[in-house]
Amino acid sequence: MIKTLPTPKGFRDIKPETAKVKREVINKIVSVLEEYGFVPIETPTIEFAETLKGKYGEEEKLIYEFTDRGDRKLALRYDLTVPLARYVATYNPPLPFRRYQIGQVFRGENPQKGRFREFTQFDFDSVGSEDPKEDALIIASAVKSLEVLGIKKFKILINDRSIFAGLPPSVIRIIDKIKKIGRDEVVNELIKAGYSEKELQTIESNGPTENLQNIFQELENLGISKDKYEFSPTLARGLDYYTGMILEAEIEEYGGGSVGGGGRYDNLIGSFAKKDIPAVGFSFGLDRLLEILYP
What is the count of structural domains for the chain? Predict the structure, then answer.
């Protein structure tokens, strides 16, 4: 037997049968997005480190950074959203700009089931409009994509980051863990951080904001069934750049785990463009989708 070199931890080879299925999944989602008016772009795998840093909160520690022979500080892209923000600031495409992109992203985290250090994201975003119709379009695109893949038991969880106004990021991150570690453990972590169960109870007592009510009305106008989405007041999402509506897609066959997420990020592009450019988007984790569809 020939002894071969292993791949680094968290990185893997994709065999022909898996690569073929992956391409089929991509093509099905593309068919939905192009029907809704999204167009494709591509951005580099490597960005200047300063382009990525300062955008992800505590998750920034997972960025792969290195220095090239010219002593330039570079990094492997952490997601496809920040590169999109740089792209829009650089090329000033006509707005609203609806784009999709499929590409490899890299995170130096502990590999586990469905999570790798290199994985494929499928992003789609609408840039240039604050209209709740664009938020609804993103949600509808996620719903229709899951349906065209033949997934029946799923739910799009939706919240508004304004519900957490006044709470420090550390508390928001603890509350966001409620589905992963359970309510009791979230309360324990809040107490350890110098807070109490009251913070969680206050969040749980909230109803949909006026912004979300407008989005839900637009979803109804688009013909999206109410059983495909629900308001989830404890959903926070960890990335610091979200400013409004946030969402995650959960699939029952995956044990309720998330297979994608996103939200509104109205300030991120402005940090590059030096002017206000609102945006909202969503990203599928293709590797997780493939595990569900073809276990």
Answer: 1
